[in-house]
Write a structure and sequence with these properties.
Blueprint (H helix, E strand, L loop, with lengths): L9 H21 L4 H11 L5 H14 L4 H9 L11 H5 L8 H8 L6 H15 L3 H31 L5 H38 L10
Helix pairs in contact: 1-2, 1-3, 1-8, 4-8, 6-9, 7-9, 8-9
Length: 217
Amino acid sequence: MSKRIKDTYQKHLWAFIAINILIFWSIFVYGTIDFDKIKLNLCEFASPKSLVFILSPIITLVLNGIMSNSVKETIVFWKIKNRLPGCRAFSHFAIRDPRINIESLKNKIREFPKEPDEQNRVWYSLYQQYENDEVVRGSHRDFLLTRDLTSLSFLFLVIFGSISIFYANSVVSMYLFYLIIQYLILSFSSRNYGNRFVCNVLAKASEDKWQLTNHPT
């Protein structure tokens, strides 16, 4: 059985969590970002004998599971309804990506759906045919990883940012700015990876020969 995509990047999530916690700890304990202490603590966290290292899978699982997938998607795309890029797969992405053979794609699904929910359902049917393709799986992983990083960065912004507002000094202000920028960068990155994921599935489907027969005419 192939490894679940989420299992391939848990260590990346833990590294992100550890660094953010250590930066927060450094600022509010030492009054500055002490990179030497952060590096030392990271080395201790990475030690197999460390209690934090032993608990890291649990900490990562809990923090990443605080938000549902729908909430994570809202945090990434800033939309409540029809937030996934698959909802615009045929009305937007299919006609803008030069790799996608429109005529071939129309022959496979007979007619492009117009409603966002239907677009996402048809796109997902296409995805299921190619989920193990190297390019599709890689872009799916990139999207899921950046989506989870974005949700964690938002969580840190809310928790650590709320604590920061009680401290009025330049270091804390810079730290709050860092939390905002971190969230925005990851959010935009995740959107781009999500869009690329949708396009990669469409591009793969448009070059293959099978037909989506379960889509209504």
